[in-house]
Task: structure prediction
Amino acid sequence: GYPYSDYYRKHYVRGLNEGKAHSVLTFLQARGVPVGVRDRARVLGCHDEATLDRWIVAAATAASVGEILATKPPRRRATASRVRRRAAHPARTARRRRP
Result:
């Protein structure tokens, strides 16, 4: 098992994500990209690790903060298990027509 409490894990992850948010802003500052108050608040308010990782990568080449914040997550590919699930329950995935 994991020797730490749920409280510790929750706040540890929060601290990691805050560090990533500050990394995005530091990266932009070092590159001379201006960051507005709203954009700064949005970056610092983000707690999703995958989004922050995407923003860090985008900050390496972006010419503006808008380019970074506009990055979208990669589309999930249809795995074999999802394809089987859809085949087993066609009524769930079929679009319902209204009369």
User: Anything to note?
Assistant: Helices lie at 6-31, 37-45, 49-59, 65-69, 80-88, 90-93.
